[in-house]
Design goal:
198 residues, mainly alpha, 77% helix, 0% strand, elongated
Length: 198
């Protein structure tokens, strides 16, 4: 019973730290966020942070993973109404790109994430999205919806295009103005895979 309580407390501490970091990173950015302020805001010590995440970068990775997972779920939910497999895959990509306008996503996932955690294609959430896209591509290949291509390569290119588009929006001087242009290009590029009348 004691061990269960300890593991529950550890999980609660982990969740508190992620929530506090998410708020601090969104408001101040990764570099400016103070770990002492962050841990104090949830009544924990730096020791709890190091124990759960190793360091500040480990905490950023956990926050990015959480938000990136939410982004994937939101994209799927927004595209869920679309019946056609191909149109749904495109709608998911477009929904993901649009999330680059969200200030929290922009700052944490698209600006600080790549700057401090490296290539987004290697993040756990992105690898999960890649597999989901690959499964959709395989299904559409079998149904003759898309041209005969390598499923791994096609999934990688589609996911990379959506992520790169989101990164471009985040870095843009005028994200609102840039959004329709990049969505149009993403849609045109992706549609080259489709072999039925658009």
């Amino acid at each position: 019973m004691m061990a269960k309580r300890r593991s529950e407390t550890m999980e609660e501490n982990r969740e508190k730290l992620i929530a506090a970091a998410r708020k601090a990173f969104a408001e101040k950015g990764f570099v400016a966020a103070s770990m002492d302020d962050l841990t104090a805001s949830v009544g924990l010590t730096r020791g709890a942070l190091y124990h759960n995440f190793g360091d500040k970068k480990g905490l950023l990775a956990a926050v990015v993973d959480q938000i990136d997972g939410e982004m994937a779920q939101r994209a799927k939910a927004e595209a869920a109404e679309v019946v056609d497999d191909w149109e749904r895959l495109l709608a998911e990509g477009v929904a993901y790109i649009k999330m680059a306008l969200d200030p929290e996503v922009q700052r944490i996932v698209l600006l600080d994430g790549p700057a401090f955690l490296g290539d987004p294609a290697q993040w756990p959430g992105q690898l999960s999205c890649l597999e989901s896209t690959r499964q959709s591509i395989i299904k559409m290949l079998e149904g003759g919806v898309i041209k005969p291509v390598d499923a791994d390569a096609a999934a990688y290119m589609l996911n990379s295009a959506a992520m790169s588009a989101a990164l471009w929006i985040a870095a843009s001087q005028d994200p609102q103005k840039a959004l329709p242009d990049i969505i149009a290009v993403f849609t045109q590029l992706a549609s080259g895979l489709c072999q039925r009348p658009q």
